[in-house]
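Below: protein 1.
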Amino acid sequence: MAFAIKAEVCNPRPKTLAFSAQKTMYGGKTIAKGDTVFVFSSENEGGQGLIARGIVTSAEAIAKKSGIARQTPRVSLTIRCTMPAKRRLGRSELKEFTDWNDGRPETELNFKFYRQATNKIVGISDGAAKFLSKFF
């Protein structure tokens, strides 16, 4: 399984990225060392969308806090960026894909990242990973 992360990224051409206690959804909590990850610089934080593909060099689940009933699993990870994106892909390119049952990779990405616009790590399908690979 491949993964994607949408988070605040200040450097548009990073070599290495470190993220602390990132929210996970849609299988994102299973991310592990060696996994492929597509990095989206969050438009909520002034970013431009897809910026890089990389390999997870470390991933550590964050323990849940006691006394809180509902908690989203969180993970801290480090990514070695292996390739910068050559074409733009962000909220504006994906927003027209809203038929949640059409099976398109664009729709999957729009649903997972922008239906609920919080920053997060998500698991993505092989089809979505293949689609994203075309941007490099």
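Below: protein 2.
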Amino acid sequence: MSGASGTPYAAAVLRALLAAGESVDLVVSRASRLTLLDETGISFRDGHWREDLRAWLALGADGKPGTFDVPVDAVRHWSAGDLAAGPSSGSYPSKGMLIVPASTACVAGVALGLSKDLLQRAASVVLKERRRLVVAVRETPLNGQTLRHLVTLDDAGATVLPASPAFYAGATHIQDLVDFVAGRVLDAAGVGHTLYRRWEGELGGAPRPA
């Protein structure tokens, strides 16, 4: 997680990864902790990260508690300042990396190979190891410099995935729109899910249910 607005997207992706039986190495940047506090009222603390993560993942996109019950035993948390962490090395096993949400500052750091924190370093490792990197950029509008950084990431093999929800899947709640974006992130990562109704062509002028 980087510091862009959009913590419900990250929560939806995390819940779906755990539901799919995936283990997760979680890196929460310093800036994203401030965003998480602003958007949910939850402080993410290194010493109490399991409790804070459970409280956060229990929230729906509307901010109401008790919507979800998610076990977090398969999550391993790494401090963003820990450059000696497992994900900082190419020998550490992983299928890839998802940056959700991705701020323009994070995009720039990864595109330029700055590796100023564990989030950027882990992304650089994923790229050099030719693993999947999905960058769910959330900010808008995008200036020319950011667009060039995104092209650089695309050229390096990353999937650039703007957090742009679609409306053809019959969304009736904010959570439906959040889940659509989370589902597209998981699609790009090759992880199965049932977060949204897939388009199967038109039947009588209306989308066919999956």
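Residues 7-190 form a domain with the Rossmann fold fold (CATH 3.40.50.1950).
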